[in-house]
Amino acid sequence: MGSFLSSLLRATADGSPESPSEPSRVQAFHSAPRWQLHFNAVKETSQLMVIDFAASWCGPCRMVEPAVQAMASKFADVEFAKIDVDELSDVAREFGVQAMPTFVLVKKGKEVDRIVGAKKDELEKKIQKHRPAPVAAS
Q1: Is 26 within 8 Å of 53 (Cβ atoms)?
Q2: What is the mean pLDDT of residues 71-87?
């Protein structure tokens, strides 16, 4: 069942086919029920989730996309999700998104931080700040 659910939820952020050698770690959501199912599952954990609110027509969103993809690969312990504000306007409204891109950092279902604008360095610093500390080997 997990692989079936994964196949339903898997999509690249820019809509291009996934390359078999390097699938995207950013999950794009195109339906509110799938988003709600995923959000509810992740909020039961202490995992940090970065929600990228963007739009297909947004130049700064497209400009920062490669950096977001790189961060998703770098921070494998962080969940990355992408919401198109035109497709899921109710979800964007629920999170109070008023400009794109907006990155909302969530832990246990609660917002812990937010970055408005294509500020990739600030996003990376806030991800490092809020992700779980690595467990030291004893």
Answers
A1: no
A2: 96
| pTM (two decimals) | 0.81
Helix 32-43 to helix 2-9 angle, to the nearest 10 degrees?
Answer: 130
Q: Which of 96, 93, 92 is nearest to 82 (CA)?
A: 92
- pLDDT tens sequence across 19-43: 444 678 999 999 999 999 999 999 9
Which residues carry out catalysis?
A: 58, 61
**Tokens representing residue 85 in the block:** 């504000």
